[in-house]
Amino acid sequence: MAGTTTGIPRDVTQNHVKGGVGESTLRPDGTLKVTGEFAYSSDMWHEDMLWGQILRSTVAHAEIVSIDTSEALAMDGVYAVLTHEDLPAAKNYGMEFQDTPVLAYGKVRHHGEPVVLVAADHPETARRAAAKVKIEYRELPVITDEASATAPDAILVHEGRDDHHSGHVPHPNIVHRQPIIRGNADEAAKRADVIVTGEYTFGMQDQAFLGPESGLAVPAEDGGVDLYVATQWLHSDLKQIAPCLGLPEEKVRMTMAGVGGAFGGREDISMQILASILALRTGKPVKMVYNRYESFFGHVHRHPAKLWYEHGATKDGKLTHMKCKIVLDGGAYASSTASVVGNASSLSVGPYVIDDVEIEAIGLYTNNPPCGAMRGFGAVQACFAYEAQMDKLAAKLGMDPVELRQLNAMEQGTIMPTGQVVDSPAPVAELLRMVKARPMPPERQWETAGESADVRALPGGLSNTSHGEGVVRGVGYAVGIKNVGFSEGFDDYSTAKIRIEVINGEAVATVHTAMAEVGQGGVTIHAQIARTELGVQQVTIHPADTQVGSAGSTSAGRQTYMTGGAIKNSCSIIREKVLEIGRRKFGSYHPAWANAELLLEGGKVVTDGGEALATIADVLEDQAVEVEEEWRHRPTQAFDLVTGQGDGHVQYAFAAHRAVVEVDTELGLVKVIELACAQDVGKALNPLSVIGQIQGGTTQGLGVAVMEEIIVDPKTAKVRNPSFTDYLIPTILDTPTIPVDYLELADPNAPYGVRGIGEAPTLSSTPAVLAAIRAATGLELNKTPVRPEALTGTL
């Protein structure tokens, strides 16, 4: 019994824990969030705290002639007004390139760049003080597109580049270039009976998370700082923050605060460095919270893109070749543009077998807003283009668009354009079959017998602009491929610290990782894995912080694979340690301790035949077992800079969509009726969460298809619509029924066979909606989002 050091273990009966892997366990934070009781980072409070405020540039490209802070400093309640001259250490930071100023110096490179930093005892005082700062600019010409960026006499967005890509790009305003050459596309084109080309434009999308950037920095007695912040990657932040504060990393202690969504937009630094500088300068806690206007300038966006494609096929539909050029606008600072270029190029063929390809992808420096990570990470833009091409080919060949895709679909064993073999299931044809086989939703649902029309089911909805006179239905299909995890030789790992001990007579596990819970449900999965691996019911999730090793970013669909894998690995080590303790204590009482395969299940040590030998509490008594271990996926390789060859990705994910839309062709209004998805998830660790992720990704793809775009003035590079009044996102009234089917075809290289699920549905939902609108209208529609004027010809 617990507390006894020797003796025969008490009789035990086998039972199983609830809430393990494969169950739809409810989220521990779910009820708090829907009732409004969850504490987000913007809710944090500290006695005697100050408020930080940023003054941002009003122009996109200009020399800073002078900054006058005297009036702001003279205001009551103002504790600090800082410029770049007041920065304590390094003036630049960045994830891949350290090219982003903490506060602008010399010149500003985009609209909304931070220039001056204020701390005051009230947020309104801080705002008024910032408004009193006088900045004189000397405006410079703006770089806004490929032509202006790569002209021989183009102004350089960054002079004197010395980053690791600068030596191989054809122009200093190109962040990175990645070609991929396989076979001979020119020769293969001669075998084509049909060739189609297209030029496509993908708009700049915002992550539009509902919780704006915010955090609290508290100066510490040791001269360091404790930072509570909403982020996606604590340890990446730490490596950028510490040099800018002039502190060793151990004196910058970071803890995750409640996050109101991310989708890539919190992977870069926002207010972390600025709040910390103010706290150290004033000796007081400093809170910073962006309003929505500031948020549009305070984080990176999805790269807008221009894409040129050529596909050829034989008359029976077999693809002969593909050529493409993809130009991604990275904006003023690099962020993760180089990696997005690698993704866009390596996934630009889509989930198809094409032996002969010629691909080029580049990322630009411009004076447009900085762009970086967003759900889909370069694969979204490519999918929009290659799926439009598939529909063009099908139309020219007189083939069913789904059958054309199935005829050319990749499968396990297919060789990617990079030379990498797809070594796990790739059920592309089956996913297309699944969405096509679904029953169609009823037509003209706004018409009900004996009742007036329900305008909510009509294009235009409650605006009551259409009553169905010119409404036409369209159906479209699309399928996409997305990599999972970090690629191109990056040392991608995660760390898990697991502890098991007896509390009040029951074995309890504690899971401590630095994983950022941004809404994806990782904390739920972590507890499920611990229950399954350790056989305990009670699992405590320790708050994420930098007192444990890195968990990497909550992005790239990697956390269940990577941190889940790390937890599973650490739990397996814990399990062996517990069993070894049990063998030492009780091995003489039952031969199974020495001879049988032993497991931890239901709070007990059991044989693989189900016989219970002892409770875990009896084994441990007052002893705790703790393990902290790193876990890595198999290595990847950098793509060759000339040919693009290399095993660059660790895993691929696939999803297909069928969109059903109704379009008022006279008014240019679109109603998406249904957006069905089929996806291979490898293993559904939490089926309810799987469906939620698929539906969420699908909805973001819907948004960029018909409404979402940050509009940047091409003459001034200023953002025109930095608000949710003018930047529209889907509401519950815009979101259609999203039925989900999923396959569980295990990846043998992944923990539990899992496959990242969060990003793939964001790819194919957009082109499926566009295909459906094309089917309804007969228009080519090569740009996202589709606006009413594009459908009515009134552009």
Provide a short characterization of the protein structure.
The chain contains 19 helices and 29 strands. The chain has 795 residues and is an alpha+beta fold.
Architecture overview:
- InterPro entries: Ald_Oxase/Xan_DH_a/b, Ald_Oxase/Xan_DH_a/b_sf, Ald_Oxase/xanthine_DH-like, AldOxase/xan_DH_MoCoBD1, AldOxase/xan_DH_MoCoBD2, AldOxase/xan_DH_Mopterin-bd_sf.
- Residues 35-141 form the Aldehyde oxidase/xanthine dehydrogenase a/b hammerhead domain.
- Pfam families: Ald_Xan_dh_C, MoCoBD_1, MoCoBD_2.
- Residues 1-16 have a biased composition (Polar residues).
- It contains 19 helices and 29 strands.
- By secondary structure, the protein is of the alpha+beta class.
Main sheet strand line-up? 3-7-1-14-11-12-13
The total count of strands amounts to 29
**Rg over CA atoms:** 28 Å
Strand coverage percent: 15-25%
The global form is globular
- What's the quaternary structure here? single chain
Count the helices. How many?
A: 19
Alpha-beta classification: alpha+beta
Low-confidence stretches at least 5 residues in length (pLDDT < 50)? Answer: 1-7
InterPro entries: Ald_Oxase/Xan_DH_a/b, Ald_Oxase/Xan_DH_a/b_sf, Ald_Oxase/xanthine_DH-like, AldOxase/xan_DH_MoCoBD1, AldOxase/xan_DH_MoCoBD2, AldOxase/xan_DH_Mopterin-bd_sf
Protein name: Molybdopterin cofactor-binding domain-containing protein
Domain Aldehyde oxidase/xanthine dehydrogenase a/b hammerhead: 35-141
Biased composition (Polar residues): 1-16
Descriptors for this entry?
795 residues, alpha+beta, seven-stranded mixed β-sheet, six-stranded mixed β-sheet, 19 helices, 29 strands
